[in-house]
Amino acid sequence: MFKPSRPNDSRPRIAVAGATGRVGSALIASLVSETLDLVALTRNPDAQPVPAGVSLAVLDFDVPSSLEDALRGADRLFLSHGTSSRQVANEIALIDAAVAAGVGQIVKLSAMGPPSRLHPMDWHMQIEAHLATLDIGYTVLRPSAFVDILARAGAQVAGDSWGGAAGNGMVNLIDTRDVADAARVALLDDAHPTAQRAYHLTGPRAVSMPEVAEEISRLLGRTVTYQQRSPKEQREKLLGSGLNEFVADLLLGLDQLFYHSALAETTSTVKELTGHAPRSVVDWLSENIPKFRK
């Protein structure tokens, strides 16, 4: 398929959708030093500036032609989308636009977990099922829950009110930077351009929320307790904090996955792909402990 000329046709062009998100921005930062043309795709160009040398393309999912226009000339696409009720429709639209534009490979950010009706796990399943019907190379990245979710506990820890419905269940939290590192490897892989594959990405070991509380206590030098609540009590707490029902139910659903240790799996995939061990929860807490201080 013919592709329009670009500034340096000998260099691959990689489009990054969700470029201002946590994984997308880390991915962009890791790719700027590579010999390639990099274009950041975003719905909100004012959300976060992109590094120098990175092109910017604005997506409008209400204008389908804008998607194919933004992807024209791209060889590979990293696909990430914030959790929302439009996630399935928007990701499928961007996948179809990529195929129409002649993109050869897609790296999709998905989620690890059992078959579930919980959003966004069920949405990722629908998007993956659509991707599997297409004649295009793709890599699906299925990370466990992001360790960044602990940042939500910062103010609660400071106010001695942290708790939830996770019980003593285990979860293997992963650092977003490790997911970005895995995405970088997948996007730069020239050995298997037509492969269709999936990777499960986790941190080095599973932890419970009480264990996280113990580590925060050690770092702060004071006792921090994870207050155990029933799902009903936790939902009321979340709604009472000002969250809407969609976000409250999403967070409560994660707590229930944690409670049942549904995301406790440990894989060696991050190290095998990137060559370095995944960052631990302790690493993340040590870097971010100011978020938890009074």
From TrEMBL:
It holds the Pfam family NAD_binding_10. Residues 18-183 form the NAD(P)-binding domain. InterPro entries: Ergot_Alk_Oxidoreductase (IPR051604), NAD(P)-bd_dom (IPR016040), NAD(P)-bd_dom_sf (IPR036291). It comes from the Bacteria. PANTHER family: PRESTALK A DIFFERENTIATION PROTEIN A, PTHR43162. This is NAD(P)-dependent oxidoreductase. It comes from Bradyrhizobium betae. The lineage of its organism: Bacteria, Pseudomonadati, Pseudomonadota, Alphaproteobacteria, Hyphomicrobiales.
